[in-house]
Structure formats: structure tokens, C-alpha cells
Amino acid sequence: MKLVRVIEEFRKEDDCLVKEYLLNISSEKILATLDDLVLNDDDYTDEIYDCYFLSEDQLKKISPFLTEEINPDFDTYIYQLSCYEDNK
Fold first, then answer.
1. Contact (CB, 8 A) for 8 and 50
2. 66 secondary structure, DSSP code
3. Checking DSSP bridges between strand 2-11 and strand 52-53, what pairing results, if any?
4. What kind and span of H or E run contains 60?
5. Which residues have a Cβ under 8 Å from the Cβ of 6 and sit 6 or more positions away?
6. How far is the C-alpha of 2 from the C-alpha of 41, rounded, in Å?
7. Average pLDDT of the chain?
8. Distance CA 14, CA 12 (A)
9. Element containing residue 6 per DSSP (H, E)
10. Structurally, how many domains does the chain consist of?
């Protein structure tokens, strides 16, 4: 079992998931890159499991770790850092 981290793009008008962008980054590197990310009380500093909404600045900082290019549109979409288990 492997943890997968993604940026999820949700349409603001209906909260529908439009696309996932795969991240190639460890939780430690996420915390170092997003030094202003405040973890939830039940999340761990060595692993990030909860979902976190990203600001434009945060998305810009983490974009170099995406496996494909993203062209963010914060007027139309909301972006969220997510983690899930890949059972492949």
C-alpha cells in the first residue's frame, strides 16, 4: 500500500471534483515548502493525511512537485492538498 498525494481541483459553483494533479513530494518536503501550512490537531507532523485548502501562494510553491503542469484559475476553482492510499 502506497500513499498518494494530489492537488484536487474543485469547481466553486457546485463543489464538483474536476481534476487531480499528482504530486511527487514527501510530507516532510511539503511542510518545508509550505512553511505556512497549519496542520489539523489530529494530523501528524511526519505524515499529512487530512485535506487542506491551498492559497494561490501555496499552490505556486508546491507546483514544481506536480507531475504535470497546472494552470490555476482561482476565480473558477478551489484547490486542495489531499492524500489517499493507493491499493495498487
1. no
2. B
3. unpaired
4. helix 56-62
5. 20, 21, 22, 23, 81, 82, 83, 84
6. 23
7. 90
8. 6
9. strand 2-11
10. 1
pLDDT score, position 71: 94
For 79, half-sphere exposure in the C-beta direction (CA atoms, 13 angstrom radius) is 20
Four-residue CA torsion sign, 73, 78, 81, 84: negative
- Intervals of the chain under pLDDT 50: none
Residue that the C-alpha cell 486542495 belongs to: 80
Q: Which CATH number belongs to the domain containing residue 18 in this structure?
A: 3.10.50.20
Residue 44 has a pLDDT of: 65
Q: Which cell numbers hold the place of 2?
A: 502506497
Q: What is the pLDDT of residue 46?
A: 63
Q: What does the pLDDT read at residue 75?
A: 97
Q: Domain range for residue 16?
A: 2-86
Please identify which residue in the block is written with the cell numbers 496542520: 39
> Which residue's entry shows cell 482561482?
74
